Amino acid sequence: MTIYFFLLMIAFLFLFQIALLFYLVIRKKKRQRYEEEIESQYNHLTEPFSSYIIEPSDVRFLYAIRSTRHQAVVLERLLNGYVAFTKEANISPLVKQLSEEFLTEPYSRILGQRNWARRINTLHYIEDFHMASLSPVLFERLTAANKLDVETQQLIRTLASLDETKVSKELSRFPNVPIRLYVDVFNRLQKEGTVKEIQSALDGTDVTLKYAALVFIGQSGAMSFLPAVEKELESSHAETRIQALKTLFRLEYMSDPDLLAPFFESSIWTERMFAARIAGILQFSRYKKILSTLLGDSVWWVRYSAAEAFTHFSDGDVILAHLSENHSDRYGRDMAAQWQIYRPGGAN
Amino acid sequence: MNVFFLVLSYVIIAYMLFSSLSYITLFLLAFRKVYRESELDPREATEDIAGNDRTFPVSVLVPAYNEEVGVVSTVRSLLALEYPEKEIIVIDDGSKDQTSARMIEEFQMIEIPYAVRTYLQTADIKAIYQSSVFPYIRLIKKANGGKADALNAGINLSSYPYFCAIDGDSILENDALLKTMKPIIESDGQVIVTGGSVRIANGSTISRSKVETINLPSHPLVLMQIIEYFRAFLIGRLALSRLNILLIVSGAFGVFHKERVIRAGGYNKKTVGEDMELVVRLHRLLKEEKSKQRIEYIPDPVCWTEAPESLEVLRSQRIRWQRGLSETLWTHKKMMLNPSYGSIGLVSMPYFLFVELLGAIFEFCGYFIIFGGFFFSLIDPKIAGLLFLVTIFYGSLISALAVLLEELTLHKYPKVSHLVRLYGWALTETFWYRPLMVIWRIQGIFAAFRKKQHWGDMKRKGIST
Q1: Which of A6, A299, B22, B70 could be a cystine partner for A269, CB 3.0 to 4.6 Å?
Q2: Residue B289, CB-side half-sphere exposure with 13 Å CA sphere
């Protein structure tokens, strides 16, 4: 290898980079021009669009969008802006109608393209705009999918948002489905479909599905499932009992306070912690004595939750003041002292 | 003697070619992922987890030492973070300035009794404060013990299962935490650490703790650091993360699974490179436990930080970084070329030793021979010329490539002139910036033997108005 070889190599790499630089400069300029054009069309159509959404008889927007050069992109941005601005918009019939009329064809095309990012974006937009017209195309893609990657997961969410109950059956084809994906499906299906799915999840033997159902009940506050949740407190699986306790904590309701009693003496600290938290949030006065015992528990989180529980009672301040002086356990006294002043919680 | 220099020249040429090739390989590995994801709609990507009960709550830890200028704006930027549930814990590590006073005044903080769990031993906690306006902002005032000690104190006080460590002079973009937590949430806990991209804020307009306009600084020293960050974050870290052999998650911005960190023993107080040392230790434990858990880097979430503008501060920073690297590699020397640690032991550790640590020594020898060859006939000027060309390839051209990769994928700098300026400055790297770095990095290796603990003095101007 001579110096000329290296000279050539450097020159080649340098020239390659210069060419790439020129390409990127030109690409950047083109993008800027394209963005300016889109921005101008967007601004031009914003007023007629808003007017059409408020009063559908004002059809100026429909004429204008038909003659717009970047019709699909501009409409997509207008609808996106609207959907992001007002969450009710995702069930607006006008959003659905406009997107189905103008975006069905371009979106079908994008879904068949190689650009992964655009396919993912499109799946999100179909969900946001409730484009039921694309259900058959999406379902075809789902049946052809053989692994549960990011795209398939979004495909499932999008189809669930279009109330395609068949997704649950398709989902069972895949091993190790994460709980969050089931919860996402429950969240997206229409109420009637969700109730059926939850009921069958609670009755079934698939533990993941059952946990997902419990999580969903807690998140959505579906009180009609309370008896089923309380029944799970008797489960022989510790994890199921903990999930059920977590759900009751979120529901902030129990039909029978006695059901909580065994958990204060559980050998599993998570159960003791949730029992303390539930007793606090539901203000079960009968458990005040047990809570003061738990204030001296060997696990920090149990002590923390027991002290926090007292803050929910009207006389909690007085009890905490008393316990901060008189509790037999030093850590219990410290914890009680902390909760006299401390305000819990994170930013929501 | 001439034969010695001749052989040394060829060794350095071979080394630089090998290192350049390793960079290009990393570049190719990084490119596919960044390019594939570059067109993703950022709002849609995080919409599902924003405001969802499914996210895990995060404790944001801000260790601060003499950060009176920047600490309030950093906390304000954290208040603006879009994240369902978080708490912010500032740890004043015995500052000599008004760091605590600024926090107490700005957020109307009151002292509270707090039953802290001592998972990790730290220097004395003097007081704990809670904001009466935003109860989830807390301040720990403690005796000086170093950054690692401050972070350990923050871990002790934190209530949530994940913590995010950020520097006291940094500003996070609004959706940075959501994006960083996304891989953790979606992997159902298989990802235990995520590191985000850190960018230099000098030149950009940051108003009320929010990045308003992205611009380039005029100072060449800062411009070169921007290019260097592209090279480090976009080429190095992303590719290493794809192979699950990433050894560094920047101390300026990273999210960690708290229990894992506690099990690993927390941050190591005996090194100045506590961020890297912790990540290497976590990798070590994962390998020893044959765990499939991962450490990931995400190119997009952006944390903005203030880069040094003076040679003196930059020198001190680089000496500290190099010293941290040396100490980490020495502490975990058992992993080096050890097949029990898989690709970490066989690829990542040797890469950091030969390219990142010893690279400075090879480069120093290279500059010495080039100079000696051209001016003192130390070797044949043709060989010196050859070495010079390889040095340009290794320095300037690889950095220029990093600039192009940034434009091809994330294109955060909006103007065409930004791209051209960055590219132009990247080409000058070999001639002035790199020699400076080489000298300081060598000083850093020597500093590792002296072992003097300090936070590193950075004269802040503050990056937010």
Answers
A1: A299
A2: 13
